Amino acid sequence: MTELSPSIRETLRILPQKPGVYQYFDARGELIYVGKAKNLKRRVNSYFNKEQEGKVLALVRKIHRLEYIVVDTEADALLLENNLIKRHKPRYNIMLKDDKTYPWLCLSNEEFPRLFPTRRRIMDGASYFGPYPSVKLLNTLLEVIHEIYPLRTCRYKLDEKSIAEKKIRLCLEYHMKRCAGPCQGLQGKEDYNEQISQIKALIRGHIAPVLQTLHRQMMQAAANLQFKKAQSLKMKIELLQRYQSKSTVVNAALTDLDVMGTKEDGESIYFNYLRVVDGRVIQAHTIEVKKKLDETPADLLEQAIVEFRLQFKSKASEIILPFPPSFALKGVKCTVPLAGDKKKLLELSLQNIKYFILEKSKRMDLTDPDRRGKELMVQLQKALGMEKPPLHIECFDNSNFEGDYPVGAMTVSRNGKLSKRDYRHFNIRTVTGADDYATMEEVFTRHYGRLVQEGQPLPQLVIVDGGKGQLSSAYRILRELGIEKDIFLVGIAERLEEIYKVGDPLPLLLDKKSEALRHIQLLRDEAHRFGITHYRKRHLKGLIKTELTDIKGIGAETASVLLHHFRSVRKIKETSIEELGQCVGKAKAELVWKHFHS
Question: How far does Cα 61 stand from its chain's mean position?
Answer without folding.
Answer: 32
